[in-house]
Design a protein that fits this description.
The chain has about 475 residues and is an alpha/beta fold. The protein is built from eleven helices and 30 strands. The strands form seven sheets. Strands 20-21-22-29-24-27 form a six-stranded antiparallel sheet, with no helix packed on it.
Length: about 475
């Protein structure tokens, strides 16, 4: 069985922690590991697993690769989507990447919380046995309340002692209908997790959406392989229809089976959902970071860099990062996406980026910025190198704070150590490398008429970003 980790979401309802360039699945929201890492780690102990296949946005490729490396997982492939096309094409690409049509795929979104790992693994084992017969299996979460934020699956005739043929998929209901679903005992929350043979999924997709399958096949055939990365053909994939696996296949096939799952599952789609799965104090407050409260109840309070204090409040979410603060009632957390939409309209970078921005070579932290200057703290990993590049509109001053830097500028190459500096004039081709065994830390001061990150002309890049 091949785990397929789908990591395409942007998690806008968990802004400001989750942003499009560093979304929730790469964040340690419920443990010391990221949600992506937790998704893979909870598979430990399942027999017969092959190396996983990852599917993610091209901009997230190095985060996925690095986070898998941190937990000693070597993926068989990381498929890079040049643009999002929803889950049906993503799963098709993973099926095409499998070694055999008989390989069984375990499809897992990278951003779920499952507390009862033993129950989850038992359900996976059962689903695998059913999938070996040619069925397309999904997991239906046994509902704990009349939730209106999830779609539902109605179970039909029994398939095994605990699984059912799918009678129907239904959209998110209103509160009254959701209560009827729960009371009947026949309905389950739609989890978005699946188990089936690679070939069987492709057969059903070809039956119901041949245009999608053809686009995926051609984009995969023309793909370029770079290390673990499979770079799809952008032009072909842009023509692929966008649809979820539910709409494209599962709602149409007569081979769908649902395995009930009661494993303390949560898709962490909002701040209130994260409050649900976080440990709380005696007043019902979920607290992370530097927080002091007085007469505060039932709140989610998260501090990333500064002290948060609250007095006499109830049912609030307060999330602080180095460049943004969110305050919202827990009753309105579904509307956080509207804030992100407004930030995009205003062309605010906070909609996409944190102040600290991760790159394949390390990261930078934007310490200060003005109309004609930026100041960054740059950390370069041992052995890493920034691209050979130039800028049309800015010059740069570099000061080494810790470690050793090899700097190329024009035809000159120099070695800088702590407390030494250099100047990169506007338009000069340059690069920066850390030849040492400890991280290189430096301060960069940019000055010029335009300071956007798109003012980079790359000539050579070890990470394929030219």
């Amino acid at each position: 069985m091949i785990p397929v980790i789908l990591s395409g979401g942007s998690g806008t309802r968990l802004w400001p922690l989750s942003r499009s360039q560093h979304p929730k699945q790469f964040l340690p929201l419920v443990s010391n590991h990221s949600m992506l890492q937790e998704t893979v780690l909870r598979l430990d102990g399942i027999d017969g697993l092959k190396s996983p296949i990852g599917v993610c946005n091209e901009n997230h490729r190095f985060m996925m690769a690095e986070q898998l490396r941190e937990i000693n997982i070597s993926p068989s492939a990381i498929i890079l989507e040049p643009m999002g096309r929803n889950t049906a094409p993503a799963v098709a690409l993973a099926a095409l990447a499998a070694e055999s049509e008989d390989d069984i795929l375990l499809i897992l979104p990278a951003d779920h919380v499952i507390t009862n790992v033993q129950a989850f693994q038992a359900a996976v084992k059962h689903a695998k046995e059913i999938a070996e017969t040619g069925a397309l299996v999904t997991f239906g979460i046994v509902p704990t309340e009349a939730e209106t934020g999830y779609g539902y699956i109605k179970g039909g005739q029994k398939n095994t002692d605990i699984a059912f043929n799918v009678d129907s998929f239904v959209e998110k209901p209103d509160a009254e209908t959701a209560q009827k679903y729960v009371d009947s005992g026949e309905y389950y929350w739609n989890s978005g997790m699946f188990v089936f043979k690679a070939g069987r999924y492709l057969e059903e997709l070809n039956k119901f959406n041949p245009e999608m399958l053809q686009a995926c096949q051609e984009a995969y055939r023309l793909a370029e392989v770079d290390m673990d990365f499979v770079r799809l053909d952008k032009k072909v994939f842009s023509q692929c229809p966008a649809d979820s696996i539910d709409f494209a296949v599962m709602e149409k096939t007569d081979q769908a089976v649902v395995v009930p799952l009661s494993a303390e599952w949560n898709d962490v789609g909002s701040w209130s959902a994260l409050w649900d799965v976080t440990d709380k104090d005696d007043e019902g407050n979920a607290i992370n970071g530097d927080v002091v409260t007085v007469n505060t109840k039932n709140c989610f309070l998260h501090s990333s860099s500064r002290l948060i204090t609250t007095v006499g409040v109830d049912n609030l979410v307060v999330v602080e990062t180095s460049d943004a603060v969110l305050v919202v009632s827990k009753d309105n957390v579904q509307d956080v996406k509207a804030i992100v939409d407004e930030l995009k309209i205003q062309n605010r970078p906070e909609s996409e980026l944190h102040r600290k921005v991760y790159r394949p070579w390390g990261y930078y932290d934007l310490v200060d910025n003005g109309e004609r200057h930026n100041t960054k703290r740059i950390v370069v990993n041992p052995g890493a190198k920034l691209s050979v590049q130039k800028h049309h509109h800015r010059a740069e001053h570099w000061v080494v704070v810790k470690g050793t830097a090899v700097v190329s500028k024009g035809d000159e190459q120099i070695l800088l150590t702590e407390n030494e500096s250099t100047y990169i004039p506007l338009g000069v081709v340059h690069s920066l490398e850390n030849p040492g065994v400890i991280p290189l830390e430096m301060i960069e001061v940019q000055s010029g008429s335009y300071l956007g990150e798109d003012d980079i002309v790359r000539y050579l890049d070890k990470y394929g970003r030219v």
